[in-house]
Amino acid sequence: MTTITKSLPRLVVLGEALTDFVRTGDQSWTSVAGGACWNVARVTGTLGIATAWAGAISDDFLGEEILEKSRTAHLDLRFIQKVSKPPLIAMVHETAPPKYFFLGNDSADLAFDEKKLPAGWEDACQIAHFGCISLVRQPLGEKLVGIARDLKRRGVRISYDPNYRNVMGPTFSVQFEEMAKLADIIKLSDEDLAQIYPNTSSEASLKRVREISPLANILFTRGASGLALLTPTDSFEQPAFIVTVADTVGAGDASIGGFISSLLLEPKQDLAHHLRFSAATAAAACTHTGAHAPTHKQVLDLMQS
User: How far apart are alpha carbons 271 and 59 in whole angstroms?
Assistant: First the structure.
């Protein structure tokens, strides 16, 4: 008898999923599943890329919400580990501008075990994405950096978005540069650079990134001012698409998700096309509240408008 095994994903995103508790009044809060890395995976899965988010979630109703939304985004559920640990939570007590703190000293995300991932996933993986707070939460962070190193040796392209958060601290530039050296694709916002290299201009900071990662493609986002793609030999500019903005939550995650998706969906297209697709994905995400994962049709309609 022949056993048919579901094929393994081309893209694997490794990092945190969490639950945001957002203050809506003096005594009221609302919760929503989130996390930068998980948001990226939802974007690529919804755009049609065979994607897995690899991480651990709590075995309670908050973890179940992450699992169900992963299923809706067509993510490969074999990579999600449910563990008997409390959830990782972000308490967002102000939204304009965002102010937050994290709860989770012994939470589910830290229990991720790469040995339990499906056999052979590294061989099927074409791009692996890493980023945000998962890389500074130990022992998870060291484990993920080790996975990135191993994948790099295997010839897998590494995508990295530092997505700076307040828990990263004043010495984060050291770890940022460690990951940047491994990365083939680096997504950076102007706000990220200001935190990673304080009191330094964006131009000088980008020059430093190029020195430590001479062959990477750098996706540089500037909110309403648009995006740039900086290659080892050239640069491309892309204005932001004009849309009615509901909010900008998850726009950065959508931009890198769109860029990776375009690389995998249309590998023969030029980099300017991939940059335009990235910008359209980010803009489409902004037309809905929360970290919206737009469909491929929504992105194409915006590109053609």
Answer: 42
